[in-house]
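For the sake of transparency, this paper describes our internal protein records without simplification. The tokens are whole numbers drawn from a learned vocabulary of local backbone shapes. One such record is reproduced below, unchanged from the form in which we store it.

. . .
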Amino acid sequence: MSDQSNGLAGPDCPQWCRAQHGDEIHPDDRRHESEIVVVPVAENARTSARAGDGAAHRRPDSAEVFLVIHQQLGEPDVWVGLGVDGRGMDLSLESAKRVHQALEDLLSITRCQGE
């Protein structure tokens, strides 16, 4: 991961960085990036078919959530990227921690109800 010609040496990378840094990457696109974590999920998908009463049908469907930590070179902020079906968002570390805590809180409710 060391490449002195672009000013980035392996020891300068965060411990979580798995990106390949090289001169072939445009300077604006150079960033530290973790391994991408793929999480298989079941989502409650709406189908195009309508029930007899006009209500939309819903059915479980499989999907994948992609998670990655990244940081643009030369910038102090570290982000958690979250992507589903071509849509995504980047959360600050603090925001990701709040989402994590909120999920824990919600899941604890289901544990209290016997799942």
The beta strands are 31-33, 37-50, 56-72, 79-84, 87-92.
